[in-house]
Structure formats: structure tokens, C-alpha cells
Amino acid sequence: MSAPAAARFVGTSVRRVEDDRILSGRGRYIDDIRLPRMLHGVFLRSSIPHGRLTGVDLDAARGLDGVVAIITAAELEGVAHPLSTRPDVPDVARPVFTVLASDRVRHVGDPIALILAETRHQAEDARDAIVVDYEPLETVASIEQAEDPARPSLFDDTDSNLLYTEATDYGDPDGAFAGARVVRASFAPARVAHVPMECRGGVADHHPGTGELVYYATTQSPHALKLGLSGVLSQPAEKLRVITPDVGGAFGQKAMLNREDIVVCAASKLAGRPVKWVEDRIENMTAATHARSETVEIAAAIDDDGAILALDVNLKIDVGAYPALPFPPSFLGPIVRTMVTGPYRIEHLRWANTVFQTNKASYGTYRGPWAIESLVREVLIDRIAYELGLDPVEVRRRNLVRMDEQPRKMATGPTLEGVMALETLERASELIDQDSFRREQADARAQGKLLGLGFATYIEPAPGPPDFMSSVGMQLPDERAVARLEIDGHLTVITAQAPHGQSHETTLAQVAASEFGVPLEHVRVVHGDTQQTPFSIIGTGGSRAATMASGAALHATRAVKDKVLEMAGNMLEISPGDLEIVDAVVMPKGDAERGIPLAQIAMAAYFMGVEGEDDGLRSTAIYHQPPGGWSGGTHACIVEVDPQTGVVEIKRYVVVEDCGELIHPAIVEGQIRGGIAQGIGIALLENALYDEEANFLAGTFMDYLVPTSMEIPTIEIEHLHSEPLAEVNYRGVGEGGTIAAPPVIVNAVADALGGASIGVVPMTPEYVLALVDEAGI
Amino acid sequence: MSVQVSLTVNGVERSAAVEERRTLADFLREELGLTGTHLGCEHGICGSCTVIVDGVSARSCLMLAVQADGAEVTTIEGLLEGGELGVLQQACRDSHAFQCGYCTPGFLMTATELLSENPNPTESEVREAISGNLCRCTGYESIVQAILLAAERGA
Amino acid sequence: MKPPAFRYLAPHTLEEALALRAEHAGDSAVLAGGQSLMPLLNLRMAFPGTLIDVGRVSELAGIREWDGGVAIGAMTRQRAAERSKLIGERAPLVAKALPSIGHPAIRNRGTIGGSIAHADPAAELPAVALALDAELVAASSSGERTIPASDFFAGYLTTSLAPDELLVEIRLPSLPDGHGSAFVELARRHGDFALVGVGAAVALDAAGAIADARLVFIGVGGAPVRAHEAEALLRGATPTDEVYAEAAERARDEIDPGSDSHASGAYRRRIAGVLAQRALREATP
Lengths: 777, 155, 285
What we know:
The complex is a heterotrimer.
Chain A lengths: L18 H5 L15 E7 L5 E7 L1 H4 L4 E5 L1 H4 L27 E2 L5 E7 L2 H9 L2 E6 L6 H5 L14 E9 L2 H5 L3 E7 L4 E2 L7 E6 L6 E5 L4 H12 L6 E4 L15 H13 L3 E4 L2 H7 L2 E2 L2 E9 L5 E11 L13 H8 L8 E9 L15 H17 L3 H8 L8 E2 L5 E2 L4 H12 L1 H13 L3 E12 L6 H5 L6 E7 L5 E5 L8 H13 L6 E4 L18 H28 L6 E4 L2 E4 L7 E2 H11 L10 E5 L6 E12 L6 E11 L6 H21 L29 E5 L16 H17 L12 H10 L3
Parallel strand pairs in A: 1-13, 11-12, 16-17, 22-23, 29-30
Antiparallel strand pairs in A: 1-5, 2-4, 2-6, 3-5, 7-17, 8-15, 9-14, 10-11, 10-13, 15-16, 18-19, 20-28, 21-22, 21-27, 24-25, 25-26, 28-29
Helix pairs in contact in A: 11-12, 11-20, 16-17, 19-20
Chain B lengths: L1 E8 L2 E8 L4 H8 L18 E4 L2 E4 L12 E3 L12 H8 L9 H14 L5 H7 L11 H12 L3
Parallel strand pairs in B: 1-5
Antiparallel strand pairs in B: 1-2, 3-4, 3-5
Helix pairs in contact in B: 2-5
Chain C lengths: L6 E3 L4 H10 L4 E4 L5 H6 L7 E4 L9 E4 L2 E5 L4 H6 L1 H6 L1 H6 L6 H6 L2 H7 L5 H8 L3 E6 L2 E6 H4 E3 L2 E2 L6 E7 L7 E7 L9 E9 L5 E9 L6 E2 L1 H7 L6 H14 L10 H19 L2
Parallel strand pairs in C: 1-3, 2-3
Antiparallel strand pairs in C: 4-5, 5-10, 6-7, 6-10, 8-9, 11-12, 12-13, 13-14
Helix pairs in contact in C: 7-8, 10-11, 11-12
């Protein structure tokens, strides 16, 4: 039909649509929503990690001013079904648990009751008046303890704390390891927390007269949330609507069907009034999800030139007490397994993965959920380099899949195509000027100062090639978008995305306005309301938006444009192929004098109707995953380690990456910098720490250390651009920073210490000082 | 127990009766409907709730509303000039300073104080001045650049 | 996280404040800057029956000359102290310590007296008071008394103030003219409570030997610790790296830091020695 439009707004850092409201304090976040007769709900949560609930005395609480009701597991019987991992997920243990803890609590923060009162203060006062009796049980506070059959199982209906186990060979790892030189590494990163600046919350509004339920939720997956609520509450889907207001960050934490969401919706039903729940920061730290809760052992079979022949990876994951629904415990392992060979030429892999439950908060998807693969692989590569006396860049160079070898299937299945990892490595190495650094490092060392240089090369599926999903055992539908001409000639684009900082209202408008031929201000992007938006089980996540949402928006807009040109063609008696839309005027190509304003065509379409068409020539596009789909790059960083205190300072940080064409360069850079900031936090500061009895120790910002402006250096970013493999050449970029920053900083610190063996993050000053001592410095 | 709190907010005299334990943050958001000020932690570390009280920045979650009786308070809503974005806000827009927007009110008020005390800060002074405001989305660089741009433009 | 209920009282004079403090002794908390108390209230970790807000007692704020040194009213905001020329001249160790306290918004509201009365062992101002042999003036409805800093800090968040007393003034004797001072800390992030910190002041005599040295540690136990033995070692000695290393080693034996989730006692002890040397060097005129 019509040819691709000139990318008029694409590639420019235009003003963000979102900024008008965000900069003037006129955003509308969940806590800003106020409904008439609204009740405030606060959760009573377990203060112990594991025990039987022997008594919950609500009498005093019920009698307090303003208290309207207290919802416990008893009140939810018959209202909300018990939960478990979906039955169609194979090979996992599926213990059943109630939405609110009934007979047993299984982690600090496990929700026991929801107190409803006229004000938030009254609800908290009532919560303080509740007396809970527990009979403590022995705790399972680590993977080791979860493996121990002597420890109690967390659930009565399972007899162990093992949820899932898998072992797979790709190629012939036995053959490759036989007689080969082996280099090993192991890593036990600390649990971390997502820490969006806005905590989770929801406002449930159940209308007693109609049975309709509207749930305003801080979610990045509105349709998935609706689906989950519908099932658990037996709420007919046609009477359930999820609306996302502005969301203050998520990073994967707001992709869950939270037990709290279920309780809040049920509470509104039971109370006959709207119910607002907004968790406080303690709750968010304690009971919302954590991530990176795993240990891994990796070994590489290598030859004397540093070629990596095979990997042996053993990953153990601690998913906490309950699955972070709808994600099953077996969700993460296959992605790590698929990604661990990365952009390298590694043909053989021995893989083992075991998943355990412990008395901790649930493990939820967090920006680059599979990142352990890059952490441990990139650290291992540097270890190989040290063992062989080679430059770590050289070892990478010898093993990275080159462009001329692509397309090339990874041993684990997906096709590598358009992956410029090697080029990013060369460019990063050039930017760092290694020779000059090594001289500087030697001089510094002579003065007792420790400088170190690290590299990390990675790829991320953003969204990945068409064969990515089958390799990880998932099936994700293609992305949909709707475009609709408005009666004044403006355009509405309805996306399945649910942004929470990604600026989709801007980037999708850029794509659509460029395609359609109208000013940017004539395009409005609608998202987040299940009543309006096309279905997506994901919403925003998985770095799919740049390709999939843009592609869908582009094609939906193109379909509307084609219909407009056809109408105009009839009106002007010109072939549609000879028409174009420029600045909201439909005209024969290059002939503005004979143009018709778009508004006029829109008016005609609305008034007369068009046979076979919806109002506004509304069109839905389903966009299929194009080939390629990989983003990635190389990070390099220079650190200084204080040999007397172990404090690590990042002196220079360089990124060379390829995410295809940039719709909005500033937004892309913001995603990279933000991701790296979280990666720096993982590497140096953040620890969602439990003690040996699974008591949670990081409930406030005094204990959980999120990087500030003083801990994040100015990051130098360069983009490379591989040849487009499809018309839609935008790829995601949001997760790479969080994936690559931890290994690059670990490698730099190891280098500063002459090749230290590091197996832990965060690298606290105390930990680093011990390494300094070990290195005999 | 209830107490009457009267103060000037964004140049307008406001008054309401509140519980003594009502924080200034909640008073602004609930009683006065100025929801631009956000709560990120309620223990004084994240800075999302920062407002200006009698000319200096304050974490409104760490003040009782009654402590602000008689005071002059400026919130993010008060930065608009004739209903349009002010110089600092425009600089933030032009630098694409923010993403999800939740931390934004706190940063803007902190930057407002910084620029009133130090109209030409160095990059390192800006970084230090905003180090008491947490952002999880941006990695801070865009915010630093926005404040420097605002200074250049005479915010 | 909303505060529990309390009775709120806001006296306008010191006399009124002291009367209230006496009336509600044992079940009242004093609200000064609120930067330490409000988080405790919001987190529902404190449940005072009565909150006495002394923010409207204007006579409690102010900075004045005192006996060659400087006296600071308890309600003086940390930011005002940071900007005070008098403090900069007569108690420069205070000026060195203040920028490490949190962030500007915290120092705008936080007070000198509030921080000292709160007595967090990782806080700078109690340590500075200890280092400078401050005299802490406590008032009650029955009168006034002066408590030497060495008797003031009793333990974790505990002072020797009686339940009906209010800290009203902090008197800082001056150190010899021309002395140097430094406050060096190790914190995980800028503005955080220190894992370990050291305040030092050094005055030299005409011959260049150490006439007076003060060395105080934070984050090393339930209260700030003044390293008296290390100071004794320094007095009369020449200000060399070797002497400072020796003093640091002696000081390490005078402290007994505990472990927590951020750092072990052994690490803190070691860093205390490192920072002591850095602080002494920086404080050497």
C-alpha cells in the first residue's frame, strides 16, 4: 500500500508529552485519587518469619473510632479463591495458599488482615491494637537450609522446599570438558529490592448496584491484573475494569497479581464502598518483591588460546515463600539458561537449575531478571584472562560471534543476527585507551593508589528474535495497537503498553505523527485502561515496547492512513497512491493547493460512516516480531580502590551500545543511565538483607542504600547502528544498564587488586578491604 | 485533637482544621488538595516531599502541619508563572530531566533553593545539593544538566 | 506510615516550656527540629503521650560570644550555625562537622541542641561537644545546671538529662588561637550516618610541638568516645606521621565498636585508626 513515511519526528529529542503534568505537579498517581465515601485500608502483617497463626484478636481494634471493618482470611472465604502457581505449568511444586494468611505465616510481612477505616491514621491506630499470637516454627532462611530435609517444609501440602529442578545439555559438554583446562567462578549476589519511588497501591471501587468493579492500580500489566482478579474473585470480566493512573516507576515490581490487590478489591465488595490502599515504604521494602536472590557456579572449558569450548552452569534460586504470581517458580531459569552463552561462540552447555522456597518475600521480575548470566559469565571471562595471562579484551575478542558469522544460532536456540558485540568491544576499548590506562595504573600503584579497569559485554533480548520465546519455553502473543482518526482530524493511538517512566506517550506519538503526516500535538497516546486498550498479557516489560509497541502503532496508523487516502482518492478522483498527508492536509504529492484538510475527511467519515469501517476508520494492527531483536553492547569502567578503607570510587564509565535507531535520543540515554544507576547500586550498595533466622533487616532507607547523585558518575555513551533487518529498527534498551554494570564494576575492582577473585555483590568497603589484605597490598 | 492551621501556600492564604499529628505533607495533599508534593518514604530520606517553608527547603513529611502555622510555603504547584511552566521547569522539560515524575517535586524545590542561594553553581555543587533527593529512574545526569541549564537561563 | 496520637503543646516562653516539661515528665518528647523525632513518630517507633514543640520559644535560639568561646542556643538551626561567622572563628570543629550532617533540607530544620540531646552515637555534634569539653546547660522548672559533655552522653540515645529537663544552651570553650580542626568520616553514601568518624583538633606551640590535641570518635559504640590516652600521647609530641600513627593505634584500644549489618566492629576499629591519622594530619596547622 503506502510507502514508509519520512521519519519527521523520529530521531529527535522532542518535548515530552508527560512533562507538562509532571513538572507542574499535576500528575495523577494512585495516592492522588480520591473517591466519595472512600475507606482507607492498611495491612496487618506478620512480624515473624515463620509460624502458625494461633490467634488474631480484633476486639480492641474493632472498637476504635472510625474503624469500619477488618478483613481476614475468614471474611475472604467464598469471596477469593486460594492461590497457587497455574496448573498448566509443568514440573513445579504448586503449594496452595490463601490470599490472606490463615493458619500460617511464611515471611516477615506476610499479610494477615486488612483494616478499613475512615482515615489512614485511624486504620493504623486500629492495627496497633490488634494482638496476634504466633507459634514460631523453625525457619528456612537460605538455599542451604531449603536443601536440608531436616528443615520444615513451608507448606503442609508439600514435603520439601524444592519447587523445581531442571538439567539440560546443549551440544556435547561432556566431550568438550574431557581433558580440557577448566576455569571456575561462583557468585552469590545479595537479594536486592526494586525500590520504585512510588510504592504499590490500589483504589478499588465496587458498585453494589451493578456489580461492576473498577480497580485503579499501580500496575505495569493492567490486562494481566484484570485476568488474575477476575479468576480469583469470580468477577465477570465484562464487569471488571483496571485503570492505571500515572505510575511512579516499577522496574518489574508492579507486574504482579499482588495478594493485596485481591484483598482490596474484595474489601470494596464487602464494604460496599471504595477502598484505597497505598503501602508505605516499610511494606514496600519488606513485602513487595525482591530480586537477584540466587547463587551460581560456573565453569568454562577452555583451550590454551582462551577459546571457550563449553560452560557448566549450576544455578540455584531462592524465590521466597510464595510465587510472585502470575510468574511460576520455573520462570527465570530457562531465560538465564538461554542467555548465558551471550554473544559468544560457545557451542556446549551443561545446565542445572534448582528453585527453592524460603521464609522470605517473593522473588519478582526486576530489570533484566536474568542478569546473573552476564554477571557470572563476564566475571569468568576476566578470570580466564588472568589465568592465561591475556588481556580480558583479547579473550572477549577471540570468543565473540562476529557479524560475518551471523545469522548464527546460539547453542541454546535463539538466532543471533545484527549483533555488533565485537564492534562495541573494540570501540569501548578505543575510548578507554587501554595502553594509556595501564601506564597510569602502574604509576598510581607505585604511589600506593589502586586503579582498575573492567569490561563487560552483553546482549539483551529487546525484544529478541522470533525464536527467542520458544527457546525459553514461553509463548507471548504479538503486540497490538489501535489507531483512530478523531472527528477533528487528530489521531488517537491506543497502546497495550502501560508506561511508568518510559515516555511512551511521547515516543509512540513521534512514530505515529511521522507516519500519519500530522503535527506531533495532534496525536494522543492512550494507555492503561483495560476498557480501551488492546489485550496484552505483559503490558510494559521485557524491553518489547521500542520494537513491538512502535511497530504496532506504526502499522495501525498506516492502516488508518491508507483508509484516509482511499477516501480522499474518491473525493479528489485521484489514485490513493498519488496522495500524501503533510501537516494534516491530504494532497496530491507535492501539490498543497489541491489539498483537503484532514479534518474535513474526518468529518465526512464520521457523519456519513464508511462501509465496513468503525468510527474514525479505527484500525487494529498486530505486529509480529521482526528478525534480529537484540540490543547490547560493552561497558567499560575505571575504578579507584582506597587501599586503607576499601571504598570504591568509579572514576570513568563508558558505554558503547547498539539498540538500533533511536526514536528519542534523550529518552534512550535516560534509560541507559537509569539502568546503570541501579546496576551500581547492586554492585556497591544494595542489600535486601535477612538475618540467619529470616528476619528482615532492610526495611527503611537507612538500611537499604539506593545510589544518590554522588554515587553515579557522568556516563559516556556512544551508539553504534547495525544494518536494519526490518522496517521497524527500534529496539529496547532499558535493561542493559542494570545487566552490565555489576560485572563491569566487579571486573574493575578485581583488576585494581591484581586479579582478585570476587564472588559477592554488593562489594562493601569491608569486603573490598579484605580482598586488599588477601592480595597482600 | 484538632487544631486550626493557617498559612500562606503558593501566595494564597489557606486555613483548615486538622489533627495535631497531621504532617505538613499530608496537610498539603489532603486538606489543601495540592497533590503535587509526593510521599516516597515518610522517614525523611528520599526527599520527594520537599517543599519550601519560609524561604528554605524542608522535608514536609518531617514537619507537623501545625508547625507551619503562620508560615509561607511554596510547593511545586507554586512554581508555575501565570499558569505556565517557570524557567526551572522549562529547563527540566528541555533537558528531559525526568521519567516517571514521582521524585520530581522534591528535586524542583531543592533546585529552587539552590539557585536562589547560588545562582551559578558548578556541576559538582549541583550534584551535592541534590544528593538528598533520590531518583530511581534517571541516574541523575539529566537532572544535573537541567539545573545547570536553568542557572544559565537565569532561573 | 502516620504518627500515633499525642497531645501537642507549643509553649512560647522558656518558662512555659519548662512547666510543661515538668507536668508531663516521663511521658513527653521534645520536638525541636524534628529530623530525628518525626521519623520515629512516622515509623511508630516512639509513642510519647505529649509532644512539646519548643520551636516557638525564640529565646532558645541564638549564637553569642561566651567566655572567649561561643554559646549556641539549643534551638539554633544547623544551617544557621553552618553560616555563623562566630562559630567559624571560635569553634571551627563545629563548622567542619556540620556539612556532613545529612543534607541541606535536614540542616534547615535540624537544631544543634536537638542533635545533641538525641545522642545518636553516629552523629557528629555530640562528638564535637565532647571534643571541645562543652558545657551543656540544662534547665527545669526548678532551676538550671551545667553538665560537662563528659558526663552528658550516657549511652545509645541516652543522656543524663532528667525527664523534666530541657537542654537550653551549648557552651563551647575556645581552643588556642591558630589551632586546626578536621572532621573525617566514612559513610556508605554521601550524607549518610557515618560507619565511623573522627573529629580532631590540633594546636601547636611556638616551637611547633603539639600544645593541645582533641580526638573524638563516632560510630564506635553507644556514645561518642574521646580518646584521652591518644591525646595524652600527642601532647608535647612533634606532629609527624609516625606520632600520628602511634596515637591512632592507642586510640584504637580506647574504642570498642560493635557490629551491625553495615560493618563489623573489627572493620570499624581499623578504619577508626586510618581516619584518625587523616583527621590529625588535616587538623595540623
